[in-house]
Here is the input.
Amino acid sequence: MQTAAGAAANAAASAAAGKPGQAAGAAPAEGARPQSLAATLLSKAPLTPAEQLPALDRNTLPATLSPAARAIANVLVNAYTAPGVPATINGKVPLVPGGAPDTTQLSKQLQDALGKSGLFYESHVAEWAEGKRSLQDLAREPQMQRFTQAGAQSAAETAARALNGPDLSAAQMINQQLHAHEQQRVLWQGEAWPGQAMQWEVRRDEREGRQQQGGREENPHEPVWRSGVRFRFPRLGALAASVTIVGEQVHIAVQSDSDGTVGTLRAWASQLQQAMEAAGAPLASLTIGGEGGVGGSDGQ
Here is the structure.
């Protein structure tokens, strides 16, 4: 009995090792290929015989999805984003009211448009835990507002919302967060002021190291931040401006589809350089050219 049991154990161990008759602890023969277990198809027959399946005719009711299945389908449809398309935030109201825009106010509104969008909520919670951000700031983000509204709802309101199906806004926000993290790009589109459409994109790039003047090599892992806006004005035409920040260097490039606008921008280039120096961010380069390709530069 013991001999038979031992032989069976040795046979099982040898089979697991991939070579009949080889002990479990023995090394495989030289040149032997490693073996692996593969899935085996046992049968293609359905679990229910075809003759036992119900007959289908024109009176057969169409298949319907459960509420949970419909919710999952909606999440999958809304989660799809074409490759290369950045996570997009749609502004609901103009950044500033009508009239001549105040640059300080516009800058603050742009900062809030991204900071309070909910895309960076978890990092803001971490800052709040470290005492670097107030609870009032968190209360302005969608995740906190959703939590506050849910706590204020009555039982009847909660039941009514349940009948209308699950709230997919949280799932959509998570999808946007994941997409922004993957693409390293965020696009805001809306109105800068009433009637003036605007697109603003912020993205982070990695660059390859190269030799700087003086023999010092740049950090290949130093991030490159790019911020660009696009407008179309009645008189100036299409206008695009981008700011690139590499370490402590600031580069600005402006493009227009109007030769007259390009000439006007170049005439005011020195004022822009002086303003940037006064703000503590002197320009490393300033390029002004046509829309078809950045051409000549002033102050570069």
In short: The first strand starts at residue 87 and ends at 90. The CA atoms of residues 202 and 283 lie 19 Å apart. The chain has a mean pLDDT of 76. The two ends are 92 Å apart (CA to CA).
